[in-house]
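tool=predict chain=A
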Amino acid sequence: MSVFSLLRARTPADFADWFRPGGEYLLRVADGMGFHTGDLAGFIDEAETAMRAGRTGEDVAPAVNRLVAADLYADAAFGLPFLEWTPVWYELPLTAPVAYADWRLRRVADQYARTIDHLSVPRFSRPKDVISHGRPAIESVSGFADRFAFADAILHLEWFDYVAGECGIGVPPELIAETRSQTVGYYVGDLALEDLDPTVRRFQYLLFTDDEWVRDTDARYGLDSSLLALWVRVCRRERERFGGDRPSSAN
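tool=predict ok
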């Protein structure tokens, strides 16, 4: 089954298997960094149950509404900016289906956001937003896999920062800023892996466990997608780089 079969998803129940890996990713990274997560694990379970039952809005606890809405809005905001970091031959054929999928995600997210007093909508970086030595940093990164990894390193940091913030997980702003700065420095070649602050390196190590997120999504929908397999390979490679000699049980 092609990854494009996901374009048939329309209802909260259809997206329950999409939401769950993202929720677990949020929890895994936050726990791994020692951030206080409170009842997040329980909220993830409640959210999946509610989505499968088609319950939204007033029929769902406020914290669960916020979690689902933030997660899906972040996913919806991720796709098109990410494609701009990739070569034209990769970007062009995926732009229309990704835009449609993003619209579908937002429509479901809207159902959970409508009873929330305030929820921001994220905007993630395009290549022109990340500058190094006076020009877009991506121009200093060669090779498809490295550009793909660089894009993910920036955008999954922004994804986590947004969703964690909306869910009340306290992430120090200075950690986000330093991780972004050192990540750019690493990918453009100004910093070696050994130059990275250990906390930054661990943060990216955990963020690159999105290979598990992608693999779980693929398995849940029975896709066996070569497109998602590429994500898994690149993310796993980067996780191993940032993890160094850390045991796999640290995931």
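The radius of gyration is 18 Å. Strands lie at 131-132, 135-136.
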